[in-house]
Amino acid sequence: MKSRLLIIVCVLIFTGLVGTSYASVEITAFDLKISSDNFYESFPNKYPYLIMKPSDSQQIAIKITNNDSNPHTINLFMAKETPRPDRHFVFEPSQIYLESGETASSILTVSSSSEADVGTTILHTLIAQSTSFGAKSFAFYFEVTEQIHPPSPDPLRMSPDGLMFSPTAQFNLSENKIFEMISYDILPPTVPDEYSLQVMDGSKEEPRLTYSKEKYSENMLISEFGDDEEILQIIFEREEFFTYDDYLQFLNPNEQQVRINGKGGISSSVQLQTTDGEEYLASRVVVFLDEVKIRLESNMQEEQLLRISESMIKPNMVSEPMSEEEEPYVDPDHICPPGLVLDWDICIDECRIGQIESNGICIEIDSDSVDAVQSYFVITVASIFGIMIIVIVVIFMSRRKRKWKEI
Questions:
Q1: Helix 367-406 crosses helix 2-18 at what angle (to 10 degrees)?
Q2: Domain-embedded: residue 273
Q3: Is 278 within the bounds of a domain?
Q4: Looking at the structure, do residues 138 and 31 belong to the same domain, yes or no?
Q5: How far is it, in rounded angstroms, from Cα 177 to Cα 197?
Q6: What is the C-alpha to C-alpha distance for residues 310 and 392, in angstroms, rounded to an integer?
Q7: Which tens digits make up the pLDDT trace of 263-273?
């Protein structure tokens, strides 16, 4: 009986080794709190203000708490922007080491030179970034003026009304059909039951999908959509030059670093107000997949939006479609006979090593993907071999015990 139980346990271990689930959402594991006696109260949907005269300086208190089980080294810096020699930002200290559960502080001194450009208000962003994983940001306005006075809210800027969707938007396609058309190897999102895909706008390379509780039509106007509209938008954006690591140096206000199924991302959630004073939530998640990023925007809770993002991302996926330079040329009149595949302009029996067949065409496999597959194969074979040895030893020992009992 014990030997059977041990065999079952071994099988379960084996299943865990070869069938490991990589699905996960990791968020930044530290809190960032900012305060200053010099901040003017911000208006709805605005960031706090620092207002000072030329040659003046003010301080911002920074408090960071490590909620992770591991220690973190946090670097503090200002987001990259156009150099402004008349404005200075100094962190003391600029690096903080935190054990698990610890809290530490830093002071940011903001100052203006005597030659500062008077009357200019600029939004600046400070970033706290871990040397291992995690980043958060905080934004504030910085105004230099000769006369100190509380800031006034900007006048409401109304956009001209017009159609919400472009003339090429498609309303009558099923979700499965739309995801077959999209060039990227991603999955349809798992959304709340009351939401359904209403429309696909944009291009095949940069589609924009809109999910909603309500039925939409091609005649809907921009003015029919309120800020608190219960919708989910999923936008694909090609990104060839701005990497994820670059983005972490330019974090937008109130964003944090996340990781979704091993892919780098950014998330944020802020409480805003409509023009009528009603509060609503604005959440956003951006996932970087090689040369494309997927942006999800909704008034759902940030955690729920992260889970929807997770449902779309395949672990270790190759996300980008082939560029025109990489796509093999196919002459419409050049079709290979049955049983052959096209390698550039030559029909061959089977694709070469380092290629896969897709619709009768040989496509180069990304080297990182090949390495990942090979590594997984080696681990799987080693796991099977190890389990077999354990089972053999268990059977051998059980038989020996029987013989001893008979003796």
A1: 180
A2: yes
A3: yes
A4: yes
A5: 11
A6: 40
A7: 999 999 988 87
